[in-house]
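Moderator note: this is an archived Q&A kept for reference. The question asked for a predicted structure of one protein chain; the sequence and the answer are reproduced below.
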Amino acid sequence: MKRKLVFATGNEGKMREIREILKELDVEIYSLKEAGIQLDAEENGTTFEENALIKARAAAEHTDAIVLADDSGLEIDYLGGEPGVYSARYLGEDTSYRIKNQNLIDRLEGVPEEKRTARFVCVIAAVLPDGRTLTSRGTIEGIIGTEERGEGGFGYDPIFFLPEYGCSTAELSMEQKNEISHRGRALCEMKEMLRRELQL
């Protein structure tokens, strides 16, 4: 009987990445919807770690499975780390990323490339069936582009440019992205933690 793991998200793009990276673990992976969990946790933390734990603990109240949750966002140095923990809620939760991305491009108009540095941050929190918690963090450094590029990925991917690859994260293949992305790195670290802690 495989152990059950619930990832506290309803984002299909995210679930694809998660399933791909965690496929070697001996677990059945469910999204919130698949697990029949309705979550309305208020992410009022001031760090990615706090928000990921808020989400994971809220979901863990509804299941005895291993629960993972993530909080991720974009930090732009020139804008003092904005949008940061407010990345999903930046300009309002229902605002399309096309509008969000254009707004950030506009705010950086005329700013030279060397000052357009930014990073994606992802923190994954786990609540284990015995109540213990674990967190892992992954980051990827890049710069904010001057236009949207690429159809892959989601969110801020089309404006996040990787100079060493000569493309945006929305132009990477799924394999490349899982290997180098902030979520990929945090998930790989979490995978090793779960293996160690639960012998998965």
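Archived answer notes: The chain has six helices and eight strands.
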